[in-house]
Amino acid sequence: MYxxxxxxxxxxxxxxxxxPDQRRLAERMVAAGGLLLPENAEAAVRAGFxxxxxxxxxxxxxxxxxGWHWDHIVPKSKKGSNGLANKALxxxxxxxxxxxxxxxxxxxxxxxxxxxxxxxxxxxxxxRARKQRDYIDRYLQVLREHESAGSEPTLTQNVxxxxxxxxxx
Length: 169
Ligand SMILES: [Zn+2]
Hints:
The chain has helices at residues 20-31, 38-46, 62-65, 92-98, 104-107, 113-148; strands spanning 69-72, 87-90. By secondary structure, it is mainly alpha-helical.
C-alpha cells in the first residue's frame, strides 16, 4: 500500500468547477430561503443533494435533512481546509463512521477529489460492516439469548420474520 509522506497527506483536493447550470441552481436554492449558505449550496448541488459516500437522498425527508453534515475529506485534524474543494455533503452516519480517516494517506498526493471520495467510500463500507458485526449483531444476539433463557419477550419479536425487530414504539 502506498503511504505518502506526512506533508502530502493534507494536500487540498482539486476543485470541481460547477457548470453554469449548476451555479444557477445553487443561486436559486439560496434565493429560495432557508439556511443554505451560498458556499454550501454549491457543494450540495455538486453532490446532487446525495450523501457523497452512501448515496442517501439528502432531501428525502425532514429526518435526513436534519442530519446534513459537511465532511472534511482531508480531516481538519490533518490540516484539511474549510474550503469547498475539501467539503463533502454527507449523511450523519457516514460522517460519524469516517471520523478522522484521511483518504489522502491511502490515495496518494495526486489523487483527484473524486478518487479521494472513492477511497473514503470504500473505507466507510468496511467500517459500517464491522460496526454491524461488532455491535448491532452482537447486541441482537444478546437479546435473543436473553429471551430464549426465559425472560419476557418484550424487546424482540420473531427475529426470523420481517418487520420491526425491536419494540421501540
Ligand atoms: Zn451516507
